[in-house]
Amino acid sequence: MDSEAKFSQKANSSFTMDDFAKALEIHDYQFQKGQVVHGRVFQLDSDGAYVDIGGKSSAFIPRDEASLRAVTNLSEVLPLNESLEFLIIRDQDAEGQVTLSRRQLEIKQIWERLAQMQENSQTIQVRVINLNKGGVTVDVQGLRGFIPRSHLVERDNLEALKGQSLTAGFLEVNRTNNKLILSQRIATQSASFSMLEIGQLVSGKVTGIKPFGVFVDLDGTSALLHIKQVSQKFIDNLEKVFQVSQPIKAVIIDLDQGKGRVALSTRVLENFPGEILENMDEVMASAQARAERARNKLLE
């Protein structure tokens, strides 16, 4: 390569770098919309605050982006010279200034936290803020959620729920569609499930009788006493044995929290085939001692 070509290449290279440096004076390309940055508020005014995020120009956070909650005093949520996290919500303008938000950062973090809670099958406290035919709208850490009527414990008097705090589980957490749907029934079942174990004697009430078995309510959790688990003797019609609202004691023989299933047995309480059919009162009265014997067999 001759000296003239080397000079030309060097000149071009120098020009490119200078040009790039000048561009950086106008724009800080490392700052982009959607990015979380650290910064310090150095000036407050009536419209918002100016923040040093380490760029060529200061950043700006509008007053209505300062917090998820209502703000009366900016200095309470944006203290001067304190290191805070911000979300960039608008790219640089002609002066190289980006627009920030604490409110949208909080919203982003809440959605992430709720998604994690759903994954871990956790429950959350929510407050009922409004109601309609389909259910109730609730405040979920500042976000608006919905509990369908079918997923409420109290479905007949929604008006009484307004302003109430409820424990709920998650049906859908979808930030993209802004969908936050919860269930009070899931939370009730979850709390009940944590108290249950295989081999345990439980008390409940018959809520339904089907050809294949009997549904039993255990303090909000629905359990099934299958026809084959009622007695060691063949049964042709469960309605001859049970009545709706009848109190019953039975032993848990299977649990599946993921599917919300609890399987019961009175068969294991019998001293001989058909005892539950001939003398249910006696079996129920001595159920505790019988259950201890059955538990030992179940856990062998």
TrEMBL record:
CDD domains: S1_like, S1_RPS1_repeat_ec1_hs1, S1_RPS1_repeat_ec2_hs2
Cross-referenced InterPro entries: NA-bd_OB-fold (IPR012340), Ribos_protein_bS1-like (IPR050437), Ribosomal_protein_S1-like (IPR035104), S1_domain (IPR003029)
Domain of life: Bacteria
Keyword RNA-binding: no
Gene3D superfamilies, per database record: Nucleic acid-binding proteins (2.40.50.140)
Family indicated by similarity: Belongs to the bacterial ribosomal protein bS1 family.
Name this protein carries in UniProt: 30S ribosomal protein S1
Database matches in Pfam families: S1
PROSITE patterns in the record: S1
Residue span, S1 motif domain: 34-103, 121-185, 199-267
GO terms under cellular component: ribosome
Keywords, in A-Z order: Ribonucleoprotein, Ribosomal protein
SUPFAM superfamilies given in the database record: Nucleic acid-binding proteins (SSF50249)
Annotated organism of origin: Brasilonema bromeliae SPC951
